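INFO  loader      accepted 1 record
INFO  loader      residues=199
INFO  predictor   begin
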Amino acid sequence: MEIQGKRFPGVISEAFALARDGERVVLFFDELFRFNVRALDVLIGPMLPVPVPVARSMGIDTDVPVRVVRSPMWGVDYAPADNITIIAAGNPWGTQLDPALRRRFTDALKVKFDRNVLIPLTPAFRAVIDMMWTDVEVRNTASLVIEYQALTAMTRPDDPELFKRFYRRLQASDEAEAEAFKLNVSSQPALADFWDEKP
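INFO  predictor   done
INFO  writer      dumping tokens
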């Protein structure tokens, strides 16, 4: 951005400036699937290294492949491709990625939920949480799951607050999914009367 003739770079332009000066930088985009579709368009260019002849035809004086980023408020910026690593993370739901952007990712690392953290819980609690994560890992159907942080708040292996808190969170975002979760919990024989008390 330029204000009264003075340029103020955003994080991407700042990273490109550092990379152009010889530093190795990592552009890390967390929660990529939550980005606005138009914002994601900015990433399509820099994800694909531009060969030297093409870069030179664009007016870029370089002897190495470069990454090029175009922004309406900043203009065109570039840096040596080898000096910039682009990493993105996110849950596989939310904004649908443009196929052109998806193809530019060279590696994908699928992180799974470590079931070993469930060992201290009762079998019924383990079964409910395992079922949720299977929905995510195999079927990509759950939009919200009980995550590690929620487990750390448990006070005992069958702490009812774990499921009650999660149910309230679901109610705020998806009433149908909240009711499906309630049924999943009740389907465990040891938890058949779990919801007799209002969560």
